[in-house]
# Entry
Amino acid sequence: IIIILVLITIIVLVITDPLGIKKIPENKFSTTDKNLNISSKVNFDSDIINIALIGADNLKAASQRSDTIVIMSYNTKTGRMTLTSVMRDLLIYIPDKNKYDKINASYSYGGAQMLLKTLNKNFDLNIKYYITVDFNGMEKLVDAVGGVNINVKPQEIKYINDAIREQHRELGGELKYLDKSGSQTLDGRQALAYSRVRKVGNVDWERTSRQRTVINAIINKVKNEMSIKMFISLAKNAAPYVKTNISTKTMFSLMLSYIKHKDTFVIEDFRLPFDYHALDEYYNEIYYLKPNTLKDNVTLLHEYIFGIDSYEPTSTVKEISNYIQYNH
# Structure
């Protein structure tokens, strides 16, 4: 879900400051390599910028954990973008807290900065920027483009309607249930509900797949039907729900790169952990997704993001990987 807002935001953020996007002052968020656990032992490609996309779920006010985490990697030289969904139950090491926990817990321990430190330390990354999006803005954004076409499976209808009912209790507005399966246009609330479904199919694995389905649907809608009216509507609807530490200068640079490569712009999506590289585990009756192994996942991640064959993880990643492998 968050990616939908961010893909639009990348293009319009530079001109939407007056519309209410919350910028984090640089002196309030340190982006030095040391403070963000960026390893000096990794030679990063300077053409590739990595941004953490964070989904905040206000429907669960008691929970401060990030509901969605995506690593967006954009090559400013080629126009290639990769979107890597990080499974929220993934077992990793949380720095500063010196503990092993689910990756989505890192946000509750120290906000976006702690999440960036966690991603960098566990995956040998160099993420300095983040964009946080409130999920409540997603339905407004989908409505702004006139809805999205989704092929709904029969077994999904009940759970989608349950999510619609939950959202209606929290947000009010018109209550519109789905009454059929098959290809159909979903409005914002229905699309949000579809993206939130976890209790049918292969739980969280399929949830991330549904998110990517919505992503592709809205991208196609915007690419094929974009107008000045839609552009302004998207910017106005996204702005109040977005918070970032990316400077206007950096965002402007991204926008120029997008314009330069728009005809060859390509998006590839992945999921972390990768297929066949994780195990379902329970510790003290709590479910965790255990990487098998972390270092193997990191090697694959660097291949997909940076194009590095047979990447050798740092000693820090190997140490974390071994601990998870043999002590959990």
